[in-house]
């Protein structure tokens, strides 16, 4: 029996969602909440979504990602690229530790959800929602349970991690990772946005993971690293991208999007989210101290949230944005390369049974 078709929202639902998302984002940003635009839009859209009254155009998510990619990539000036390259050993260690942390937390998910060990592992590893769903499908895990756990973790980190990091934000600033950007110019921005859109399309056709953000980010990194960036990406445009990202994430928090799985799966995802957030925060602080890097920035780089969300948090708190982005970029690559082999190794030594 096929699933019922998704209802087509009325035209006024799009306007209602936009207005409430912008109002909520404005309110939270006005009180100084880090990531306020994104969190406000997420909560507002989720509220409407539970009432079956939310609607967000499909193009909003990739467009928001492309703008964020350009805004984050522009921070990679030649001196910053050198500093990030020098931190590469710590970045590789952080990515590997993040996957191992998921392996350590997986038994908690399994115990609460009553799932098999394979599904628990893929639900616990802090990769992106789409990335882990694809990897889970290839590995034969329960994709619905993995998607629910990854979505709940993402929402929890977006809600709670930025305010906690803000308390210690002073410890994350480092001149070596700060960039002097070119002035804003309308013509240059138009060229940059067109180039970002073309890069996103090309990256998608080439099969690049998270191409909507990563390809424009790589383009901006190349332009900034060679000193030919035509314009800085203004803050108001980054804020608008935050609203787009928050609204898209809010739609994932509705019963329809989560798939209506058992309540114990949701509880397991919530418990797992807090457990791995605490574990990775401690590991990040320790790694930053041992590597001689700003510990709070490393903690944010190892946070179990998504790459766009955590990089924008770093930007909002004036932390070492390129360093944080470097951690998340490398973790994305390592998840695709190492999640499967680490699981097979765990099975071989008896940890996955």
TrEMBL record:
Coiled coil: none
InterPro entries on file: AbrB_fam (IPR007820)
Domain of life: Bacteria
One Pfam family cited in the UniProt record for this chain: AbrB
Annotated transmembrane regions: 20-47, 59-77, 83-109, 152-172, 184-201, 208-229, 266-291, 319-343
Keyword Plastid carried by entry: no
Record keywords, A-Z: Membrane, Transmembrane, Transmembrane helix
Name of protein: Ammonia monooxygenase
Protein source organism: Roseomonas fluvialis
């Amino acid at each position: 029996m096929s699933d019922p078709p998704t209802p087509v929202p009325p035209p006024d639902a799009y306007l209602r969602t936009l207005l409430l998302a912008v109002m909520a984002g404005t309110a939270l940003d006005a009180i100084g909440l880090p990531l306020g635009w994104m969190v406000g839009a997420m909560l507002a859209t989720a509220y409407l979504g539970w009432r079956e009254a939310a609607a967000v155009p499909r193009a909003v998510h990739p467009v928001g990602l492309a703008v964020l990619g350009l805004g984050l990539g522009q921070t990679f000036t030649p001196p910053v690229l050198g500093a990030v390259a020098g931190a590469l050993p710590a970045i590789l260690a952080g990515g590997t530790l993040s996957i191992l942390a998921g392996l350590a937390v997986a038994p908690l998910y399994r115990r609460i959800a009553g799932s098999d060990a394979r599904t628990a592992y893929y639900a616990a590893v802090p990769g992106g929602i789409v990335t882990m769903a694809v990897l889970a499908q290839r590995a034969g895990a329960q994709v619905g349970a993995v998607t629910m756990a990854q979505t709940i973790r993402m929402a929890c980190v977006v809600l709670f991690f930025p305010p906690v990091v803000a308390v210690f934000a002073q410890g994350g600033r480092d001149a070596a990772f700060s960039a002097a950007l070119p002035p804003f110019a309308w013509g240059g921005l138009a060229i940059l946005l067109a180039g970002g859109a073309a890069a996103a399309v090309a990256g998608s056709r080439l099969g690049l993971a998270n191409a909507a953000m990563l390809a424009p980010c790589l383009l901006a990194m190349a332009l900034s690293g060679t000193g030919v960036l035509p314009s800085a990406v203004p803050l108001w445009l980054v804020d608008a991208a935050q609203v787009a990202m928050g609204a898209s994430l809010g739609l994932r928090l509705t019963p329809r999007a989560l798939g209506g799985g058992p309540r114990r799966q949701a509880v397991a995802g919530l418990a797992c989210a807090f457990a791995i957030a605490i574990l990775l925060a401690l590991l990040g602080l320790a790694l930053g101290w041992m590597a001689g890097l700003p510990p709070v920035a490393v903690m944010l780089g190892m946070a179990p949230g998504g790459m766009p969300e955590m990089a924008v948090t770093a930007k909002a708190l004036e932390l070492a944005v390129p360093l944080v982005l470097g951690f998340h970029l490398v973790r994305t690559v390592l998840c695709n390369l190492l999640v499967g082999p680490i699981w097979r190794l765990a099975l071989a030594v008896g940890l996955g049974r």
